[in-house]
Structure formats: structure tokens, C-alpha cells
Amino acid sequence: MSTLKLNINWKLILAISILGLLHGVLSLFGIVRGWEQTIWIVFGLLSIISIVWKVKTNFFLHGLLMGLGITIFTGLPQSFFLDTYLNANPDIREQLDPTKNYSLFVLAFIPVFGSVYGLLIGIISLGIKRLTKNKREVNNDKSLL
Known about the structure:
The chain is mainly α.
């Protein structure tokens, strides 16, 4: 019986994912209000760059895990301290029905958004890694000179 060994850089995944915790805590106080889309793009780019530079195999899986990690660490503080989050972000509170509890909705949405975000990071990382690998192989091939 053979076993599948995955080479996963857990330190890198955790380091990038911790950025999500920073975002989640800062969002509780409204500090990142209005910058959320920019922050998600920056986190995605940092994830992609770190995968392309530091990871040697399983690029897609690293991207998926980073996306999930960032989203989990961002969403948990927002879910656990939803009232604090909504008080600091009144524009979001205005859009919600005050008779409903949204903590469970946030918790349920974390893996969905994290999976989609991670899929995008993974696909882009894999594509860039394949493109740069092919370019390096062409540049190192002496028979083409």
C-alpha cells in the first residue's frame, strides 16, 4: 500500500493566513472600512507572490489553503464579535434586518468565500508557475541557440 506525501509549506500558509486575523481585528473597529476590496486584492497578490517564489510543488493546494486560512482568520473575529463589528461599520448594519442574527450566517459563509478565494489564488499561482517554468526551460535549453 503506497502513501501519498504532500509537501506543504505550513509555515508560509500560516504566515499569510495571519494577515487575515489582522484584517479581522482591524475591521472590528472600523479601521479598514472602505478598503476591504483593496485589502482582499493585496492579500491575494501576496499569496500568489509567496507561492511563486517559495513553493516548489503543490502550488494549487497552497493557494487553496492560503485562501481558506485568510478567510477563516478574517471571518472568525467578525462572527464572534458581530455587534462590535456592526457598531464600527454602520453602513453594513443599515443593510441588515435587525430582527435576525447574522453570526451563524457569517460562520457558514466563511468556507464558501474561502474556497472560492483559495481556488482563484491556487489557479493563478499554478498558471504563473507553469508559465515561468516553461520560460526558464526555454532559456536554459542550449539547443535553441
